[in-house]
Amino acid sequence: MTPPPARPAPPTTTPGAPIAATALRPLRRRRALGLAVVLAGLVVTVAASLALGSNPLSPAEVWRVLRADDGSEAALIVWSLRVPRTVLGILTGAAFGVAGALIQAITRNPLADPGILGVNAGAGFAVTVGVAAFGISGAGGYVWFAFVGAAAATLLVHVIGSAGRGLASPVTLVLAGVALGAVLGGFSTFLTLIDPDTFRSLRAWGVGSIAGATHAETLSVAPFLAVGLLLAVAISGPLNSVALGDDLAASLGTHVVRTRALGIVAVTLLAGGATALTGGIAFVGLMVPHVVRWFTGPDQRWIVAYSALAAPVLVLAADVTGRVVGRPGEVQVGIVTAVLGAPVLIALVRRRKVSGL
After folding, report:
1. Is the separation of the CB atoms in 319 and 263 below 8 Å?
2. What pLDDT is stored for residue 317 in this prediction?
3. DSSP letter at 79?
4. Per-residue model confidence (pLDDT) at position 155
5. Cβ partners under 8 Å of residue 5, min gap 6
6. What is the phi/psi pair of residue 329, to 5°?
7. H-only helix segments in 130-195
8. Whether pLDDT at 58 is above 50
9. HSE of 314, CA atoms in CB hemisphere, 13 A
10. Whole-angstrom distance, CA of residue 122 vs CA of residue 116
11. What are the tens digits of pLDDT across the range 304-351?
């Protein structure tokens, strides 16, 4: 009687591991390629922001005055005007981009951003009330009103969107945000029209501009933006679970309520602080997270990191475009991003399947 054949030795590796690793290689290549593209774009736009404007400078002149302030006219232009403007564009761009990524992840709504959900309008309305009623001026005075307005608008949108229906759906949140933004924008316009002094002080700020804030004003708001960015990084991992649904996220050990609450705080700090400095720049928080998802996939950790790097590229590019097109004056960055963002929004709505969250 022949002995039974020996059983084959168990595999030393999981059968699906090589397949999974092979499937991840294209995604890793896309992420590496996307990171290289974003960093190159950031370097180019920073250089263009320092060199181009109503008085263009050569790259050699910019490099010379950056190495040593020699008191020349070129040094005055670069250090007094363009360096503060470029730093402000980087900070507020990152703030609006990350705020948009957080809102889209928290609401599971691919068409959400601080502008569409009325967050910017709430901050703008609160600042308008502060100027009209209390005579505040400058970003240092605007910032607290902007925080209160942004937080109130965020909560109102969720309350209105979920009234009588339980949890708010992505569609109802967008409708509630657009409606609330229109109402608050109308009230802001009414206040500025009946008070000419208020209108003059808010005219440039209201359309979205990175030209007006000083170094001191930027530094006064920068700590709030830094805290908002740190919170965004801290909750980016749990947001991957939230994207699967509240019940499944809870079963995976994610504290859903705490994650959403921290997300709202981060959005308030980012959108409120950036709006206090710039007056609100439309569509940055909508466009950038969608673009970076083409490279990163649905992982919120990568989306948040890429948005913080890619959004400043868009803001600085729009600002440089406005300076070049409107020379010797300029077109505010908020107008340029709105012109670019409207076709993008239409394309996103018409797509059968938007990028996954």
Report:
1. no
2. 93
3. I
4. 85
5. none
6. -90, -145
7. 138-162, 170-194
8. yes
9. 31
10. 11
11. 999 999 999 999 999 999 998 877 878 889 889 988 877 776 776 666
